[in-house]
Structure formats: C-alpha cells, structure tokens
C-alpha cells in the first residue's frame, strides 16, 4: 500500500492516520467537511509535537510525517487510494452512508476496510461495490501505541484481500489477530462484558470507582481499570458495542448496565466530554462518586 485514505478524523481516525504516515505512506484524511479533517490533522500535529518534545521523534521526522497527511474536503481524491479505511462513529447507518459515498471512487483493485468495533462485516460489505474487497481492520486506542490489529474477513472477502491487509497491518509494526465475523470479534467480545460488569458493580455500590479500578490495575495488572478504560474508549461507544452484542446474539449477558445507559443519556461520555466516571476538567482524572 502506498496511498491510504482514512474517513473519520476523530480519536481513532487520527490515530490511524498518524500511524500510517509514521510508516512512510501517504494518507488522505476526510470527515464530514474540510474543517473537521483539518482539525483532525491539527490534533495529530499536537501529538507529534509532544513526541518531539519528549525526544521520541526528531523534528525533521515529525515534519515529514505531517507532510504525508493531507486533509481532503470529500471522497473524490480517494480514487488514488489503494486502501480506504472507514473510522467513523460506531453507528451502522453512518457507516453505510460512508461506504456508499466512497464506493463511487473506490479504485479497481483497491480495498475498503472498516474499523468497526463490533458491527458484522458481512452485512456492511453489502454496501460496498465489491464484497470480495471489503474487510474489517480493527485498531486499538491509542493507535500509535497499541500493538494489535484485528483482521476480520466477511463471508465474501477474498483471500487476496485478507493477505493484503495482514501485510499492511504488519507493515505498521502491529501483531495481527484473525477473527471470524462474529459479534464483537475477539477482543471486544471479552472487553465489553468486563467493562459492563464493572458498571454493575458500581451501580450496586459493591465498591466505589477508585476501588474498582484499583482492583483491576493492581489485582490483574491492567494498565487502566475498567471504568477509566470505559471513559477512554467513550461511554457512548461502549454502549453502542454492547447493543450490537445484545441485539445480534439476543443473549441477556450483554444487556447494558442501567448506570451506563444513564451516563450516556446525561451526556457524560468520558474523557472526550470532560466527564464520565471521572472528571477530567482539571487535568488529572478525579472520581465522580
Ligand atoms: N503517538 C505515539 N506515541 C504515543 C502517543 C501517540 N499519539 N501517545 C502516547 N504515546 C507513547 C508515549 O510516548 C509513551 O511512550 P514510552 O513508553 O516510550 O515513554 C507511551 O505511549 C505511554 O504514554 P504515556 O506515558 O503518555 O501514558 P501511560 O504510560 O499512562 O500509558 C496508555 C497510556 C498507553 C493509554 C495506557 O494507560 C494503556 O495502555 N491503557 C489501556 C489502553 C487500552 O486498553 N486500549 C484499548 C482500548 S479498546 C479499543 O481501543 C478497541 C475498541 O474497539 C473499543
């Protein structure tokens, strides 16, 4: 792959664009409009500047990395892309609209991938011009740091497409886990019930936020406790993934904790809104209950 396009300039899309550019490839970055795409690039610039400040990246490398990222106003320039990666909100109707729009410019032989955390790949492939060239490519946050990419072929995905994205993922310095197209794939199928259970534990006042997180950090050696991780992922995203698991399997073990639903209804979505289970407005996270 030499030319990659990323649709969605939020937390995941910018992380993917930064990582791809870091590995020498050109990246087009799109969102609903050019302003959003440019704001995404500005966030990448901040992250890269921090790395330079901490001596992790040379200034000239940072400049070259940023030079490889081009915010674009729409999908038209993506006809030159070998790979288009959708990294938009975890809502199927939004993703479908993106696939339909990007399909009009998808080059012959180019691959379309979705960074969905849980939505079935086989179903979404139906909204692309060639399901043989459609695949799930699931990155983890923060993308430049996390060592894993899940690769999820749909029912119709060709072996050639699967091989090409595995090579791409390894070229980014990541390990690959290959998953069948089952709800939540491998990692989120395990992670989301854990986060959800932590919210039930909080809702039943078995322990407070700090102790739940401390328990998992120190008792399980997780870098973050499940409630802090939920804030980091976004409580709306956690709820969206749980709802996909719940609706597709109809298994009550995936029913979202009522407190999680309440937080999302309150607009307390985690770090991105300044408040979730922790308050981030003063910088360091402070537990809210
Ligand atoms: N680009 C490149 N490097 C970066 C970076 C960026 N944007 N941001 C941070 N880093 C590097 C830092 O330079 C630092 O490197 P060194 O260790 O070499 O110094 C390293 O990452 C750690 O960063 P910090 O020191 O700032 O922070 P930390 O030590 O507190 O770690 C963390 C932060 C990596 C996020 C850690 O807390 C962690 O691993 N948390 C769990 C994250 C996790 O589980 N993610 C998966 C979420 S689930 C998901 O994403 C899938 C889904 O579908 C929901």
Description:
Strands 3-2-1-4-5-6-7-8 form an eight-stranded mixed β-sheet, sandwiched between helices. Strands 9-10 form a two-stranded antiparallel sheet. It folds into two domains: 3-178, NAD(P)-binding Rossmann-like Domain (Rossmann fold, 3-Layer(aba) Sandwich); 188-279, N-(1-d-carboxylethyl)-l-norvaline Dehydrogenase, domain 2 (Orthogonal Bundle), CATH 1.10.1040.10. Strand 9 and strand 10 form a beta hairpin. The chain is built from eleven helices and ten strands. The chain is an alpha/beta fold. Helix 1 (11-22) crosses helix 2 (34-53) and helix 7 (187-203) packs across helix 9 (226-233). The chain has helices at 11-22, 34-53, 59-67, 92-103, 121-125, 159-171, 187-203, 209-220, 226-233, 235-249, 258-265, and strands at residues 3-7, 26-30, 69-71, 83-86, 111-114, 134-139, 148-153, 175-178, 278-279, 286-287. The mean pLDDT is 97.
Task: Estimate the strand proportion.
Answer: 5-15%
Residue-averaged pLDDT: 97
Shape: globular
Largest sheet: 8 strands, mixed
Distance between the termini: 48 Å
CATH architectural group of the largest domain: 3-Layer(aba) Sandwich
CATH superfamily of the largest domain: NAD(P)-binding Rossmann-like Domain
């Amino acid at each position: 792959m030499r030319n990659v396009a990323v649709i969605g300039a939020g937390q995941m899309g910018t992380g993917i664009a930064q990582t791809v550019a870091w590995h020498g490839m050109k990246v087009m970055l799109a969102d609903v409009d050019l302003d959003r795409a440019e704001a995404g690039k500005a966030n990448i610039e901040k992250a890269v500047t921090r790395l330079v400040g901490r001596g992790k990246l040379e200034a000239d490398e940072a400049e070259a990395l940023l030079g490889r990222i081009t915010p674009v106003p729409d999908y038209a320039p993506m006809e030159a892309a070998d790979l288009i990666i959708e990294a938009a909100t975890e809502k199927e109707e939004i993703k479908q609209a993106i696939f339909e729009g990007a399909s009009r410019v998808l080059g012959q032989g180019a691959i379309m991938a979705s960074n969905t955390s849980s939505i079935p790949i086989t179903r979404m492939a139906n909204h692309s011009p060639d399901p043989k060239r459609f695949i799930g490519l699931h990155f983890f946050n923060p993308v430049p740091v996390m060592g894993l990419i899940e690769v999820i072929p749909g029912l119709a995905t060709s072996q050639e497409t699967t091989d090409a994205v595995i090579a791409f993922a390894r070229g980014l310095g990541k390990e690959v886990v290959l998953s069948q197209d089952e709800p939540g794939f491998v990692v989120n199928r395990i992670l989301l019930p854990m986060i959800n259970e932590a919210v039930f534990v909080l809702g039943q006042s078995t322990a407070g936020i700090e102790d739940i997180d401390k328990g998992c950090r120190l008792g399980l050696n997780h870098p973050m406790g499940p409630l802090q991780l939920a804030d980091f992922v976004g409580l709306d995203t956690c709820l969206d993934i749980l709802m996909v698991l719940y609706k597709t399997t109809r298994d009550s073990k995936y029913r979202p904790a009522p407190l999680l639903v309440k937080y999302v209804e309150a607009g307390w979505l985690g770090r991105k809104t300044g408040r979730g289970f922790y308050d981030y407005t003063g910088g360091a996270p402070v537990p809210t209950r």
